[in-house]
Write a structure and sequence with these properties.
Blueprint: E1 3-6, H1 17-29, E2 34-36, H2 56-63, E3 75-78, E4 91-94, H3 99-102, H4 109-125, E5 128-131, H5 134-144, E6 151-153, E7 173-177, H6 186-195, E8 203-207, H7 214-225, E9 230-232, H8 241-246, E10 248-253, H9 262-269, E11 274-276, H10 280-286, E12 291-292, H11 298-309, H12 329-338, H13 340-354, H14 378-392, E13 397-398, H15 399-405, H16 413-426, E14 431-434, E15 437-440, H17 456-463, H18 465-473, E16 477-482, H19 485-488, E17 498-504, H20 509-523, E18 529-536, H21 548-555, E19 558-562, H22 599-618, E20 628-630, E21 634-637, H23 643-660
Parallel strand pairs: 1-2, 1-3, 3-4, 4-5, 5-6, 7-8, 7-10, 8-9, 10-11, 11-12, 17-18
Antiparallel strand pairs: 13-15, 14-15, 16-17, 16-19, 18-21, 20-21
C-alpha cells in the first residue's frame, strides 16, 4: 500500500466538474492506497471531513510550495492543471483541456498569462500528464509540445445513475448542467430554444453557477427573464442531479469547447437523448449516439432541440446525419466504456507507472525470511547475509554490529555466538575472525580485501574537529552524526572526506546547508566535508528509500552531538526495526519542537532553496531521481543512486557464501 498525496481542494460544497473529478479520483485511489490530502480539505478516508473554502491557487502556490506542509508520500495526484512550485515527489497532473490557448476570447489576458506560466512549470516537472479525452491529448501534444508517451487518458468519472425516486417540481424539461459561462455557448442555446416553435409544454432548465464577465452575465440574465420557458435554478448539489436526469426529456450541451462533457456521458448512460456541438471531445464521448449541431448556428441548435423533443427522430436538416435513437445498447455501451471497473483499472495502471519501483532489500535470493527449508537455520543465513553486506564495502563487521544487523531474525547475543561457532566449525573455509571482526575469506571475493588502517576514520574525525565546532556554533544546526564511510572506515570510493548527517532547527535546512558550504569553502580543500543529509528537526522520519541500505545507514550513525531537546533520529524511524529486530530500541516517543519559526527567515530559507535547486535542475538533477532528494525540509545529496550497484554486488557475494555452505538451493525458492 502506497501513500498517495491527492489535492482535493477543488472538492467543495459547490463543486464543478473538476471537483467531481477530484472526488472520484481520491475515492478510487483510497480503495487500494492510503490517500493524504492538504490540511483542512476533504479526505476520502473520512467522508465527513470538512470541505475547504481556501483559495485553490493560494494553497497550491504557497501553502504547498516546496512541501512546506511537510507531506510524506510515495507519489502525488494534482487533478486541476497545476502542481506546487518545487514539489519533490513524482506527480501526475491532470490537464483537462487547453482552451486557454485554443479559444483565447473566452479568457482574460491575466488568466491566459497565469495559466501559460503555471502550465509550463507543470509540464516540465510532472512525471505524468493525465487528461480526460483523446481530443484533449492531441491538443496538449500540439500546443504544449508534451511527448505523447508522457500523457495518459483517463475519463473523469464513472456515470451517475438517474433516480426516479427524487421528485422534481415543474414542467417537463430539457436540461443543461454545468457552469454558465461564455465558452459553454449559453446565450446561443437560449436564443435557439426561443426559436423552437412547438415546445410540447417543455421548459429549458439551467443548473449551475453563473460565471463570466459582468456585461455577459447581465445579458444572460435578461435572456432568462424575458422567456417564460427558461428557468435558471442556480447551483444544484451533485446528489440532486440524478433526479433531474431521470425526469429530463433530453440534455443540451452545445459548448464551443469541452475537455470531456460529463453531463453528456451521464445522460447517455441513462438512456436520455443528447444534443451536442461539433466539439471533438463531445463527439468522442458520445460517438454516433447524439444529435450534433453547429454551435455557431442558432437555427441548427433549435432544430436539434426539436429532435430531442420528438424523442429521437432522425436528423433531416443541415447538421451532421446521425441516427439519434437511443437503442438499448447505447446506455450499456457507455457504462461499459466509462464504468467503475474500467475507471479503477485505468487508475491502477496510472498509479503503478507513477510510483517508483522501490528496492526493498534484501534481494530474494538471500533466503532471508524463507521458511520452506526447516533443516536450514535461518540464523546462519542471516549471519552470512550480514557478513556479505559488509564485504560489499570491502570491510569486516564486529560481533556487536553483526548482532544488531541480523535481518528479520530476533535472537540473543548468546544465541548468535552459538550459531556463529557452529557455522565456523562446519565451514572453516568461509569465515575468518580477527580481533573480534568477522569477514568472508578472500576466496569468495572478486579481489583481495584492501588493508585499511584501523585508525583511519578516527584520524579523519580528529582532523576535522575544529571545523565541526564551527558548524555547531551555527544557531541553525541542532545535531550532527557521522555517517557512511566515516563510520565504517570504508566506502564505494576511496575519498578522504567526512560524511555527515545534519539536523537543523525548524525551517532552516537550506540556511544551514548554505552556511556549511560556505564554511567548508573557507576552510580549504584539505578539510573536505560531505553533508550527505540535511534534515529539518520536524522531518527526521525517512519516507524515501525505506530499504535495508537506508536502514543500515541510520542504524550505524555515530552521534557527534545533539543539542538539548533533540531526540535521536532512530526515535523518528521505528520502521528500521522491521529490518533489525535486535538493535537497541528507543521506547520514548519523540517530542516535537514547540518553538515557532519566524516568517521572514522561513521565506529566506525557501528563497535559498529555489536558487540552489534551479542550478541543480540546469545540470539535470531533479528531486527523487537517482539518489537526490530535496524539499523545504530535507536535502539528500547523492547525485547517483548507489543502491542498484550495492544490491547486485551483495547478491553475488551472498550467493557464493550460500553455495559454499551447500545452501545454494535457497536461491531457487
Amino acid at each position: 500500500m502506497a501513500i498517495l498525496f491527492t489535492d482535493t481542494t477543488t472538492v467543495r460544497a459547490w463543486s464543478s466538474g473538476t471537483g467531481r473529478y477530484a472526488r472520484e479520483l481520491a475515492l478510487s485511489l483510497a480503495r487500494h492506497h492510503r490517500v493524504a490530502t492538504p490540511t483542512g480539505s476533504w479526505n476520502p478516508h473520512d467522508p465527513s471531513s470538512p470541505l475547504t473554502e481556501d483559495n485553490y491557487h493560494a494553497t497550491l502556490n504557497f501553502a504547498l510550495m516546496a512541501n512546506r506542509s511537510n507531506v510524506n508520500a510515495d507519489a502525488c495526484f494534482f487533478p486541476n492543471y497545476f502542481m506546487p512550485p518545487a514539489w519533490p515527489y513524482p506527480s501526475a497532473v491532470t490537464i483537462h483541456d487547453v482552451s486557454f490557448l485554443t479559444h483565447l476570447p473566452f479568457y482574460s489576458r491575466r488568466m491566459r498569462l497565469f495559466y501559460g506560466y503555471r502550465i509550463r512549470h507543470t509540464v516540465q516537472n510532472a512525471k505524468l500528464i493525465l487528461t480526460v479525452s483523446e481530443a484533449s491529448q492531441r491538443s496538449i501534444v500540439r500546443h504544449l509540445h508534451v511527448p505523447a508517451d508522457r500523457i495518459m487518458v483517463h475519463p473523469p468519472s464513472p456515470p451517475v445513475t438517474a433516480d426516479q425516486g427524487i421528485q422534481i417540481e415543474g414542467h417537463p424539461h430539457l436540461l443543461y448542467i454545468g457552469n454558465l459561462e461564455p465558452k459553454k455557448n449559453i446565450d446561443g442555446m437560449l436564443e435557439a430554444f426561443n426559436l423552437v416553435q412547438d415546445k410540447k409544454g417543455h421548459r429549458l432548465l439551467l443548473l449551475g453557477r453563473l460565471r463570466g464577465p459582468r456585461s455577459w452575465r447581465s445579458r444572460l440574465q435578461r435572456l432568462i427573464n424575458d422567456s417564460e420557458d427558461i428557468e435558471y435554478r442556480g447551483y444544484v448539489p451533485d446528489e440532486h442531479i440524478p433526479g433531474y436526469l431521470a425526469h429530463a426529456t433530453g440534455l443540451v450541451l452545445v459548448s464551443h469547447v469541452e475537455g470531456f462533457g460529463l453531463p453528456a456521458m451521464d445522460a447517455l448512460a441513462n438512456g436520455i437523448p443528447v444534443l451536442i456541438s461539433r466539439d471533438a471531445a463531445l463527439n468522442e464521448v458520445c460517438g454516433e449516439s447524439a444529435f450534433v449541431a453547429d454551435e455557431c448556428d442558432t437555427a441548427a441548435i433549435a432544430r436539434g432541440m426539436e429532435h430531442l423533443l420528438e424523442s429521437g427522430s432522425p436528423c433531416d436538416s443541415g447538421e451532421r446525419k446521425c441516427n439519434g435513437r437511443l437503442r438499448a445498447e447505447v446506455p450499456t455501451h457507455i457504462r461499459e466504456r466509462y464504468g467503475q471497473e474500467r475507471y479503477d483499472g485505468k487508475l491502477d495502471e496510472i498509479s503503478e507507472r507513477l510510483i517508483a519501483k522501490k528496492m526493498w532489500f534484501f534481494p530474494n535470493d538471500t533466503g532471508i525470511g524463507d521458511h520452506s527449508h526447516p533443516e536450514i537455520s535461518g540464523i546462519k543465513v542471516a549471519i552470512l547475509a550480514a557478513v556479505s553486506y559488509a564485504a560489499v564495502f570491502d570491510s569486516q563487521i564486529s560481533l556487536g554490529k553483526m548482532h544488531h544487523a541480523l535481518a528479520s531474525i530476533r535472537i540473543s547475543f548468546k544465541g548468535l555466538m552459538e550459531n556463529l561457532r557452529d557455522l565456523r566449525h562446519g565451514h572453516p573455509d568461509i569465515l575468518n575472525q580477527t580481533n573480534g571482526m568477522i569477514g568472508l575469506n578472500d576466496s569468495l571475493l572478486d579481489q583481495r580485501r584492501t588493508e585499511r588502517p584501523s585508525s583511519g576514520s578516527a584520524d579523519l574525525r580528529v582532523r576535522h574537529r575544529r571545523l565541526l565546532k564551527c558548524f555547531l556554533w551555527l544557531p541553525w544546526v541542532k545535531g550532527l552524526y557521522y555517517s557512511g564511510g566515516t563510520v565504517h572506515g570504508s566506502g564505494l570510493e576511496d575519498q578522504r572526506d567526512l560524511d555527515l548527517l545534519v539536523v537543523t532547527s525548524r525551517d532552516r535546512a537550506w540556511l544551514a546547508y548554505a552556511a556549511i558550504r560556505l564554511i567548508s569553502r573557507l576552510a580549504g580543500s584539505r578539510f573536505s566535508i560531505c553533508a550527505n543529509y540535511i534534515l529539518d528537526e520536524q522531518a527526521q522520519e525517512v519516507y524515501w528509500q525505506r530499504d535495508y541500505y537506508t536502514a543500515f545507514q541510520l542504524l550505524f550513525l555515530k552521534k557527534v552531538v545533539l543539542k538539548p531537546g533533540l531526540a535521536h533520529i532512530r526515535q523518528h524511524n521505528p520502521w528500521m526495526y522491521d529490518y533489525f529486530p535486535n538493535c537497541p530500541v528507543f521506547r520514548e516517543k519523540p517530542a516535537g519542537s514547540t518553538k515557532k519559526s519566524r516568517g521572514l527567515m522561513k521565506i529566506f530559507n525557501l528563497l535559498i532553496m529555489m536558487i540552489w535547486t534551479a542550478r541543480w535542475k540546469k545540470k539535470g538533477y531533479r528531486s527523487s531521481e537517482g539518489g537526490l532528494f530535496f524539499d523545504a525540509y530535507r536535502i539528500k545529496l547523492h547525485t547517483n543512486d548507489h543502491r542498484p550497484h550495492i544490491s547486485q554486488s551483495f547478491s553475488t557475494i551472498n550467493r557464493r557464501a550460500l553455495k559454499a555452505c551447500n545452501l545454494d538451493n535457497i536461491e531457487k525458492s
